[in-house]
């Protein structure tokens, strides 16, 4: 069986079941950023969106913990989520690993933490393809930025000196006509880009990429180690637990992981309401509560992310967390939604299209290789 019930706890048993979990996770984790981007492009403040997202993301973790973690019979060797959450078991080192964040190279770290569970030759070939895809992705961004500059170049000759006000004046796009303008102009055209800039919550035209790249780099470093830390939380490779203390089941670790994310996200975004960054408008908690524009999409994004993370950890526990890092190829899905929903890369240069195809091909190969490297972890319940 792909998924079996052991004493009230559902566990993924087979390589096939693990791969299915990872594919579903990839779909979920590649879709929720597109929904967030959709709302930002429609003018909804990111702080409002992320607060909604954080609520359902945590609710998804609670659902997974109770439904799959079991609330029934429990033993010392196979404790349920309720048992580990409500009883003192001296497992705080593992809990802290689950809640912690950090920096590192997750796939390589996971391979060694799992004691070579995954096939190294296939795994690291996939990592190589992953790195090539990332480099191609950077080239796609650079080429697309050059295309945008070329489209707007007739306004000033240098897009970096063009302010949104100048663009609006020169193109004749009035703020009250933004909706009509977005519908009438061709996607990817200069007029479309200006109309989009007037509407979106975070203005990007004429802004330096340094800040954005810095935020992205920091986020990537923080994001890269949550999987190895989760691995340590559930498998205790560093032997931080006292003898006889059961390891955290994947659902208990996921609950604490999501709890940490929820607390940090709510604290940060409430502070950003009153002290916004990136020139976003100032807001308040009362304004957030009354903002129902797009709230359903934001709540859906949180659910997708929560279930996507849960599926990734379920698959990783069964087949190796190094293989589960295949879901980090989420640009495969996000790019599809970007093209389909937002008209991204429309009317771009041949060079951009060639780089884009190369990036998607390399991500596809990387996902295939990482999943093909999957092993089968021995269950602790036997």
UniProtKB/TrEMBL annotation:
<dbReference type="InterPro" id="IPR009834">
    <property type="entry name" value="Ureide_permease"/>
</dbReference>
<keyword id="KW-0812">Transmembrane</keyword>
<keyword id="KW-1133">Transmembrane helix</keyword>
<feature type="transmembrane region" description="Helical">
    <location>
        <begin position="17"/>
        <end position="38"/>
    </location>
</feature>
<feature type="transmembrane region" description="Helical">
    <location>
        <begin position="50"/>
        <end position="72"/>
    </location>
</feature>
<feature type="transmembrane region" description="Helical">
    <location>
        <begin position="354"/>
        <end position="374"/>
    </location>
</feature>
<dbReference type="GO" id="GO:0005524">
    <property type="term" value="F:ATP binding"/>
</dbReference>
<dbReference type="GO" id="GO:0005274">
    <property type="term" value="F:allantoin:proton symporter activity"/>
</dbReference>
<feature type="transmembrane region" description="Helical">
    <location>
        <begin position="92"/>
        <end position="113"/>
    </location>
</feature>
<dbReference type="Pfam" id="PF07168">
    <property type="entry name" value="Ureide_permease"/>
</dbReference>
<keyword id="KW-0472">Membrane</keyword>
<feature type="transmembrane region" description="Helical">
    <location>
        <begin position="321"/>
        <end position="342"/>
    </location>
</feature>
<keyword id="KW-0067">ATP-binding</keyword>
<dbReference type="GO" id="GO:0015505">
    <property type="term" value="F:uracil:monoatomic cation symporter activity"/>
</dbReference>
<comment type="similarity">
    <text>Belongs to the plant ureide permease (TC 2.A.7.19) family.</text>
</comment>
<feature type="transmembrane region" description="Helical">
    <location>
        <begin position="295"/>
        <end position="315"/>
    </location>
</feature>
<protein>
    <submittedName>
        <fullName>Ureide permease</fullName>
    </submittedName>
</protein>
<keyword id="KW-0813">Transport</keyword>
<dbReference type="GO" id="GO:0016020">
    <property type="term" value="C:membrane"/>
</dbReference>
<keyword id="KW-0547">Nucleotide-binding</keyword>
<dbReference type="InterPro" id="IPR030189">
    <property type="entry name" value="UPS_plant"/>
</dbReference>
<feature type="transmembrane region" description="Helical">
    <location>
        <begin position="249"/>
        <end position="274"/>
    </location>
</feature>
<feature type="transmembrane region" description="Helical">
    <location>
        <begin position="209"/>
        <end position="229"/>
    </location>
</feature>
């Amino acid at each position: 069986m792909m998924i079996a019930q052991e004493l009230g706890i559902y566990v993924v048993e087979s390589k096939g079941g693990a791969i299915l979990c990872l594919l579903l996770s990839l779909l979920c984790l590649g879709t929720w950023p597109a929904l967030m981007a959709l709302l930002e492009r429609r003018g909804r403040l990111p702080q409002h969106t992320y607060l909604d997202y954080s609520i359902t993301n945590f609710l998804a973790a609670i659902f997974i913990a109770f439904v799959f973690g079991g609330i029934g019979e429990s033993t010392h060797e196979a404790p349920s989520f309720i048992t580990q959450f409500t009883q003192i078991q001296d497992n705080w080192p593992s809990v802290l690993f689950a809640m912690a964040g950090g920096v590192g190279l997750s796939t390589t770290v996971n391979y060694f933490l799992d004691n070579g569970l995954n096939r190294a030759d296939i795994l690291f070939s996939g990592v190589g393809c992953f790195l090539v895809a990332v480099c191609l992705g950077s080239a796609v961004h650079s080429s697309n930025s050059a295309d945008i500059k070329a489209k707007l170049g007739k306004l000033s000759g240098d897009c970096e000196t063009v302010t949104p006000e100048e663009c609006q004046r020169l193109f004749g796009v009035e703020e009250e006509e933004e909706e009509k303008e977005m519908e009438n102009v061709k996607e990817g055209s200069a007029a479309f880009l200006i109309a989009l800039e007037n509407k979106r919550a975070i203005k990007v035209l004429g802004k330096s990429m340094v800040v954005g790249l810095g935020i992205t780099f920091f986020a990537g470093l923080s994001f890269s180690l949550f999987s190895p830390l989760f691995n340590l939380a559930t498998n205790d490779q560093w032997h931080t637990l006292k003898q006889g203390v059961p390891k955290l089941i994947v659902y208990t670790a996921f609950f604490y992981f999501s709890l940490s994310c929820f607390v940090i996200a709510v604290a940060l975004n409430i502070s950003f309401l009153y002290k916004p960054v990136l020139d976003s408008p100032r807001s308040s908690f009362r304004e957030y509560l009354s903002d129902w524009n797009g709230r359903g999409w934001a709540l859906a994004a949180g659910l997708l992310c929560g279930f996507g993370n849960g599926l990734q950890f379920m698959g990783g526990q069964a087949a190796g967390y190094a293989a589960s890092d295949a879901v980090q190829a989420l640009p495969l899905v996000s790019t599809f939604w970007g093209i389909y929903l937002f008209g991204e890369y429309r009317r771009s240069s041949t060079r951009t299209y060639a780089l884009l195809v190369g990036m998607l091909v390399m991500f596809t190969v990387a996902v295939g290789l990482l999943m093909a490297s999957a092993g089968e972890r021995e269950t602790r319940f036997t």
